[in-house]
Structure formats: structure tokens, C-alpha cells
């Protein structure tokens, strides 16, 4: 049987198995281990019921196939694939890291807590150590890969904000997403004012990009962001002939939204920020909550405006211009967009949190950003985070 027919046969088997198997599958059987965990082009999807729990699923965007593997996770979680494992970051109220093994049907092979109420945000793996960013803390925690016990930390005490409109600065630095470059770990610190008199969490202080030496467990450098409140994942990509770290800053967002930030790029060769935003909030018309860049000529952004209209926009990173709108959801419709991923094959995946028909929209960036599935593909629960199942760092 040739590879294409073999893959089609596998998908056909998957379809019949889903019809005959209960939706709640915690431990896939041997047949699923061997054939149905995922295809080579599959992505990982964190789903949630936004109440009692969530599930980790795998989804194949070329055939719109959701595989039957369904691993219980927290209702508030994000995922990352690194070192041949899926890491589920179970955030506030579970506060743990869950390690899934793709070779064993993505079953959980390790889980460890990071401290009640610490609200973990991301994880990086280096040698025998796990580095975990904690939103409700002033340190970067370090854990043993062997048994998940805490073995150290990098203190961010000196990076706490020193100003609050209430006169009482808080002690958390709101550390969030991370990315590795060699032995350096770059981590974003939002530094929000939790004690602001408005009751919201505005960015009244500068935000930082901190470079950590993962061998010595110490700070190498601190870079002040040109815009505040970085809120997206970090994409490492070659732009203008050199590798850059790219992320979106939202400034004042949501109920205190202002046009005050955008997508920025950090040049790794000289550790400096690109002089221009790749996509500005003035051009997008709102806060850029997530993005994916294909190359210098094409990027995609999930935008929320002050009237709570949600859009997926196409833009040109080289010039910063908006070049189209793929999807628009008015603010008076109870649908949100959560999860944005551009696969290496050029498929743009957009998670829709429509509670009557949640799922994933698939666009093809190789065919003029055409929508391939007008009805979003179901992934069992509501998609919350979508990520590549490949070692990207």
C-alpha cells in the first residue's frame, strides 16, 4: 500500500472508531497508539469547557480530522511542544505542568505542581532542568526534569514595578511567554499595576524582555520594550535577512483599550528592537491579541477593537500595511476567537469559541487565504490554544 493510500486508510479507520467509541478516552488502546494518535502534519489543540475541565486533542488540518485521543487537562491551560514531548501548562487553580508522551498516545507520563496560586504561563527545557514562568510571582522557577521538584529560581525582585496609582506597588512581575536562543532564555515581563485605583490592571510601568543564562541560572540582560504589556506568544522567525523574536504588545486592552501598541521585532544579532512596528494598532484598529507571520510579505493578526468586534486580518510585516480581513465577528455576537496558528504547510488555523458550534476554521495561505471549511471543524470541546507538534526551539 502506498503512503497516501495508507494514510487515507488510517483516517477511514479513525472515522469509524470515533463513531463507535465514547468521547471520553483517557487511555487509548494499542490500536490507537500505533495508528490514530496523530498524522505527521497534525497540530496539538488545548480545548476547554471553561468550567470543570479541558481536553488535549490532535487535529489534522489538511483533512479536517480530529483524532480520538482525548487527554484530561485543566479548563485553563496552554500547550507547547519541545524535546519530543507535549507540555500542558495548567494555569490558575491547578498550577501544574503536565507532560504528555506522543509515542504512547499522548498519555501523561509526568505531572508536578508549581505552587498554589502561582499561575504558570510557559515552560522551557534545558539539559536536566525545567524553567517555568509564573504570573503571580517575582521569580523564574527551576525544576528537576527527573522528578519535578523545585531546585532553584532566578529572582526578579529587582524588576518589580516601583509605581502604582494607589501608592502601593505589587510584588508580581507578570512573567509570561518564553523562547530559547542557544543557552539564552528570553522571557517577557508585563509589569502590570494590580493595585491601580481603576480596579483594572493597566501597564503603568515599562515592560521588559529579560535574557536568562540557562547554564548559570542568572539574568544576562534586561531590555526595555518600546511598547507595554506583551501578551502574545513569541515567534522566532527570519525577517530582513536575520533571526528576530517577534511578539505583540497590547498596552491598555479590553475595557481600558487604547490605540497604544502593536507587533514588535527584536533583532538577535545586536539585541536591539526593530525601529518600526511590524503591524501597528493604529493600522489594525484595535488590540492585536495574537499573530502569526509567514514571511516579510504576509502575516495574520487576531484583533479586538474597542467595540469588542473580533477580526482576523492579513498584513504585510515589511511595510506594516493592512492587506485584508479574513473573518469579522461583531461585538454583539457571543463568539470569540482563541488560538491562532500558521502551520509549516501554510494552513492558518483559527479557533472559534462559539458555544453552539465551537471548532477550528482552516484557511490556506498558499491559495489567497481562502477559507477551506465554512463550518468550523469540531475538536470535541471549545478550542483555546493551538500549537505545532514539532521541536521548534
UniProtKB/TrEMBL annotation:
InterPro entries: Quino_amine_DH_bsu
SUPFAM superfamilies named among the record's database cross-references: YVTN repeat-like/Quinoprotein amine dehydrogenase
Protein name: Lipoprotein
Organism field: Leptospira vanthielii
Amino acid at each position: 500500500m502506498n503512503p497516501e493510500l495508507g494514510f487515507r486508510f488510517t483516517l477511514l479507520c479513525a472515522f469509524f472508531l470515533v463513531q463507535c467509541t465514547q468521547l471520553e478516552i483517557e487511555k487509548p488502546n494499542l490500536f490507537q497508539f500505533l495508528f490514530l494518535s496523530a498524522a505527521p502534519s497534525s497540530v496539538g489543540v488545548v480545548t476547554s469547557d471553561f468550567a470543570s475541565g479541558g481536553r488535549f486533542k490532535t487535529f489534522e488540518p489538511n483533512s479536517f480530522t480530529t483524532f480520538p485521543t482525548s487527554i484530561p487537562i485543566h479548563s485553563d491551560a496552554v500547550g507547547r511542544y519541545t524535546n519530543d514531548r507535549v507540555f500542558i501548562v495548567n494555569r490558575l487553580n491547578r498550577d501544574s505542568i503536565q507532560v504528555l508522551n506522543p509515542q504512547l498516545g499522548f498519555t501523561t507520563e509526568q505531572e508536578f505542581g508549581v505552587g498554589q496560586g502561582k499561575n504558570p504561563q510557559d515552560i522551557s527545557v534545558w539539559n536536566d532542568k525545567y524553567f517555568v514562568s509564573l504570573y503571580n510571582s517575582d521569580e523564574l522557577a527551576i525544576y528537576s526534569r527527573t522528578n519535578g521538584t523545585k531546585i532553584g529560581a532566578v529572582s526578579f525582585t529587582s524588576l518589580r514595578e516601583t509605581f502604582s496609582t494607589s501608592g502601593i506597588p505589587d510584588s508580581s512581575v507578570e512573567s509570561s511567554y518564553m523562547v530559547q536562543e542557544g543557552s539564552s532564555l528570553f522571557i517577557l515581563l508585563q509589569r502590570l499595576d494590580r493595585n491601580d485605583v481603576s480596579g483594572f490592571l493597566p501597564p503603568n510601568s515599562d515592560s521588559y524582555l529579560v535574557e536568562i543564562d540557562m547554564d548559570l541560572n542568572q539574568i544576562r540582560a534586561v531590555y526595555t520594550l518600546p511598547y507595554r504589556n506583551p501578551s502574545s506568544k513569541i515567534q522566532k522567525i527570519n525577517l530582513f535577512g536575520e533571526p528576530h523574536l517577534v511578539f505583540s504588545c497590547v498596552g491598555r486592552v479590553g475595557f481600558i483599550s487604547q490605540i497604544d501598541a502593536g507587533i514588535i521585532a527584536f533583532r538577535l544579532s545586536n539585541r536591539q528592537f526593530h525601529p518600526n512596528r511590524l503591524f501597528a494598532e493604529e493600522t489594525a484598529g484595535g488590540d492585536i491579541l495574537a499573530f502569526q507571520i509567514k514571511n516579510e510579505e504576509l502575516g495574520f493578526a487576531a484583533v479586538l477593537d474597542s467595540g469588542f468586534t473580533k477580526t482576523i486580518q492579513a498584513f504585510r510585516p515589511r511595510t506594516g500595511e493592512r492587506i485584508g480581513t479574513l473573518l469579522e465577528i461583531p461585538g454583539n455576537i457571543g463568539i470569540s476567537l482563541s488560538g491562532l496558528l500558521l502551520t509549516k504547510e501554510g494552513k492558518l488555523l483559527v479557533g472559534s469559541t462559539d458555544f453552539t458550534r465551537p471548532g477550528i476554521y482552516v484557511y490556506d495561505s498558499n491559495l489567497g487565504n481562502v477559507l477551506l471549511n465554512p463550518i468550523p471543524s469540531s475538536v470535541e470541546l471549545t478550542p483555546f490554544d493551538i500549537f505545532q507538534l514539532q521541536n521548534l526551539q
